[in-house]
Design brief:
The complex is a heterodimer of chains A (about 425) and B (about 290). With about 425 residues, chain A is an alpha/beta fold. Chain A has nine helices and 19 strands. In chain A, strand 14 and strand 15 form a beta hairpin. The chains are: A alpha/beta (about 425), B mainly alpha (about 290). The interface between A and B is large, with 50 and 44 residues.
Chain lengths: ~425, ~290
């Protein structure tokens, strides 16, 4: 049964450029007066006027290319009931615009969108939270903004509070909440919306890693409950763990649609020049010294550069370093960061370097099955072994995702395994085979 | 709230023909989404609560502010216009005359000023989630009614004092008109407010005009001089202002002095309905693409 619940047909969205904050009543009146008398628009610049005339001569849509930009062009796709569809694409490809049109924040310029059932959108968590109101009051307010009735919020109230882990502070104004509590409460409300269609932006990039995992789990449950989810994200890790299919947007058009596994790897390869490699330009360095880290690169198991690795495969990080005067006792370090907190720092033993040898490549390998699926950032730096003085420091040098794409039965990640890293442990006291 | 596919719709439509939400570039002028607004009535109530709670939680005096503001204006008017300039108050006690004008005009001006910034001051919410945008100005109109009620009770205290001290004021049968007056006023202020809110998304400079205009407009109502003292063109100008019959009728109903003619009130009511209709139409037009311009 082909049960289509979202139908997007030839959707286009046009934005006007440069007009923002420029119109005044006087200008519009002048324009209206000119139109009445068959004169050209007085607020147009000369070059625009010429373009307009050319367009008129060639019979094109007069003025259509003028100060306008098409954020979406002729986008068409269907989504079936129960499907979890990912929307991927580079910055400016039209992902956010698409979501804004679908969530009715803004109207389409051309084309049509049809949806069946109740729609809820999550472009942000905690929209409309008021700092003076208590957690309880904000749950009702935010729930209502998201489209729930009072009775529905009441029914889920205890669940929301338990999920957010804020039961003790529920009657405290949210301005006294820690930022973590605030986000947890906001997300808990969103997670307990009960829509048939859920439209989600990258709101998961909030909160601590454990909470993120909990939310992703919750979203997975939503999808399994037969609901339709549209998920817009940069994070290929989350996309591949949640979505069955993806739509790839490029320059406002649907470039490709297909199974997640194929398209995600194609998407990643298409961006090899950018993903998995960064030139650390001088402006990004917080500490300047004769010793500098110039490049950072990630190499996957197949020996190629990549912005993402599988959970079951090792990852090699390579730093290109250069030294302008002979130095001893140099230590290079890499911080692995997730959700804003540093998981661990790995450091080289002290080594020496001289200017004659040019650039040297320093590599380390993170073994397979250490980092759990998720999104990680790398800060890199260097310092002197004896004095501990800093030689270099580049925060957010590079980011990458760990995926749970499975090739081998032994690599299957247990859904119960939460957290960011796995630690090798040995058990005792267990007898008998399972 | 789910829009259930009733048996009628199912039988009359082929599979996949029933869509709950259809988004198109152009909307009919008369498609006002009023049913949507009704579905979100809980949100309107919560907005009212939020405005009320948030407003007095941040102040020292709390809800007293609601009555302090018209009282201070009244005292100033009583001294300046009543005592120093010696303007007529239709034979009413000066304090009651000015206070009645202040609370009635205060409601109108309050609703107009707050609803006129609907789009600009809620851009951060409107950009993130859809709900019928009218919920915001409607909730403002209703929450200002709470303030109006408080002020009315305050006015009643003074009224009782003057009544017992034998100042000659007397309520008339027109008292039952009070809710009607409030409704007309609410429709008028809401309608004008949302017209301005729709226009200010495009012409930001209108906001200054409004603040200034509202102040100026007060002088063409009987908030300061009664209609009975004016003649000829001046009287006509004052009567053109649809708030004039409302203030006069309010004074007549509560104190027995003032011009209360059905024809004048009918004019105000029709004016209000037309303005509200135009306002809602413009508002629903603007809300569709407003986010593209901020």
């Amino acid at each position: 049964m082909s049960d289509v619940v979202i139908k997007v047909e030839n959707l286009s969205k046009r934005y006007r450029l440069g007009l923002i904050g420029r119109t005044s009543l006087h200008e519009d009146l002048a324009r209206w007066w000119a139109r009445l008398h068959g004169q050209p628009d007085p607020s147009l610049r000369l070059d625009q006027l010429q373009r307009l005339e050319t367009a008129g001569r060639t019979g094109g849509l007069a003025g259509s290319g003028l100060e306008h930009v098409w954020a979406l062009r002729d986008v068409s796709f269907d989504v079936k009931r129960g499907e979890v569809l990912g929307i991927i694409g580079r910055n400016g490809a039209g992902k956010s615009t698409l979501l804004k049109v679908l969530t009715r924040v803004t109207a389409p310029s051309l084309g049509e969108v049809k949806m069946k059932g109740r729609v809820a959108s999550l472009l942000e968590v905690g929209t409309g939270f008021h700092p003076e109101l208590t957690g309880r009051e904000n749950i009702f307010l935010n729930g209502a903004i998201m489209g729930m009735t009072r009775a529905e919020v009441k029914k889920r109230f205890d669940e929301i509070v338990a999920f957010a882990e804020v039961d003790k502070f529920i009657d405290t104004p949210v301005k006294r909440y820690s930022s973590g509590m605030y986000v947890r409460l906001a997300f808990a409300i969103a997670a307990h919306l009960d829509p048939e269609i859920l439209l989600v932006d990258e709101v998961l990039a909030v909160g601590d890693a454990a909470f993120q995992r909990k939310c992703i789990g919750k979203m997975g449950d939503v999808a399994k409950g037969g609901r339709t989810v549209l998920f817009v994200s940069h994070n290929m890790g989350t996309v591949s763990s949640l979505c069955s299919e993806v739509v790839w947007l490029k320059d406002g058009c649907v470039y490709k649609r297909g199974a997640t596994g194929d398209l995600v790897s194609e998407y990643l390869q298409s961006g090899t020049s950018r993903e998995g490699m960064a030139e650390l330009l001088p402006a990004r360095h917080r500490v300047i010294s004769p010793f500098q880290i110039e490049t950072i690169e990630l190499i996957g198991a197949d020996g190629r550069r990549t912005g993402m690795v599988n959970y079951g495969e090792p990852l090699e990080i390579t730093l290109g370093v250069r030294c302008l005067e002979a130095m001893t006792g140099i230590q290079v370090g890499i911080e692995i960061v997730s959700g804003g907190s540093c998981l661990t720092t790995v450091m080289t033993p002290p080594f020496s370097m001289s200017p004659e040898e040019g650039r040297r490549a320093v590599s380390c390998v993170i073994p397979a099955k250490v980092l759990l699926p998720g999104y990680f950032e790398l800060h890199v730096g260097a310092s002197r072994h004896e004095t501990m003085t800093g030689l270099d420091w580049v925060p957010e040098a590079l980011s990458f995702s760990v995926l749970s794409v499975v090739h081998d039965k032994a690599d299957v990640l247990d859904r119960r395994q939460r957290g960011v890293v796995s630690v090798p442990v040995s058990w005792s006291g267990l007898t008998g085979e399972a | 709230m789910r829009q259930d596919q009733g048996p009628n719709e199912m039988s009359s439509s082929r599979e996949g023909d029933h869509w709950d939400v259809v988004l198109r570039p152009q909307a009919a002028w008369l498609d006002l989404h009023l049913r949507d607004l009704w579905r979100y009535r809980d949100l309107v109530l919560l907005f009212i609560r939020r405005d009320f709670v948030a407003q007095y939680k941040q102040t020292v005096l709390g809800p007293i502010w609601f009555v302090l503001q018209p009282l201070l204006a009244t005292l100033v008017f009583t001294v300046v216009f009543g005592a120093m300039a010696g303007l007529s108050t239709d034979g009413l006690p000066k304090l009651l005359f000015y206070l009645s004008g202040q609370i009635v005009w205060g409601y109108f001006a309050g609703v107009l000023n707050s609803t006129s910034t609907t789009f600009v001051s809620n851009a951060h919410i409107f950009g993130k989630v859809y709900f019928p945008r009218l919920a915001v100005p409607v909730s403002i109109t209703l929450s200002e009614m709470i303030q109006f009620g408080l002020r009315l009770a305050f006015f009643a205290c003074f009224w009782v004092g003057f009544y017992w001290s034998g100042s000659g004021i007397r309520p008339t049968a027109a008292l039952w008109l009070l809710p009607v007056l409030l409704m007309i006023m609410a429709a008028l202020a809401l309608g004008l407010g949302i017209i301005f809110s729709a226009l200010t998304t495009k012409y930001r400079d209108l906001r200054f005009l409004l603040t200034f205009g509202v102040q100026l407009l007060m002088y063409t109502t009987p908030a300061i001089f009664p209609l009975s003292t004016l003649h000829g063109n001046y009287r006509l100008i004052m009567l053109v202002n649809p708030m004039t019959p409302i203030i006069e009728a309010f004074r007549y109903a509560t104190m027995g002095v003032g011009t209360c003619e059905p024809l004048h009130l009918a004019y105000s009511a029709i004016f209000a309905v037309v303005v509200l209709f135009i306002g809602v139409m413009l508002f629903t037009r603007v809300e569709r693409n407003f986010m593209d311009t901020v």
